[in-house]
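Re: Re: ligand-bound prediction request (bumping)

Still looking for help on this. To restate: I need the protein modeled with iron/sulfur cluster bound, output as structure tokens. Inputs repeated here so nobody has to scroll up.
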Amino acid sequence: MSYESLADGGFATGTMLGSGGFIVFDERACIVRNLWNFTRFYHHESCGQCSPCREGTGWMEKVLHRIEHGHGHLEDIDLLVDVAKKIEGITICPLGDAAAWPVASAIRHFREEFEYHVKYPEKVKDPKHFHHEPFVSEKKPVLA
Ligand code: SF4
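Reply:
Sorry for the wait, this slipped through. Here it is.
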């Protein structure tokens, strides 16, 4: 697939490029807090037509709220992955996928931060926790 092959708008190939975006965070940003914020948005925007999106976005928002505010359990991390999997690919419109993918991706790449929130509930009760003490991953960087 190349840009040229899709330049006619995808009518010949029957596909399109779609769109994407990225956000850059430094080590003072809290992945859990930002993810909770994304999930709040998707829960608010869900029209409620399909139950995986209607219910799942709300569950993810609630679970992320409790982890971010120091009331989470380690099982909540896998619960989030499970809920995201139950939304992905089965909703009427792409909002369900858009809500599920950031959750699955954040846990895949930043699981340590979620675990930190469960292990140190007193520290994360301060909304600016990583401003005072930036998170340091113990994972070795993966070189491409
Ligand atoms: S996936 Fe789309 S259609 Fe289904 S409830 Fe969410 S916003 Fe509505």
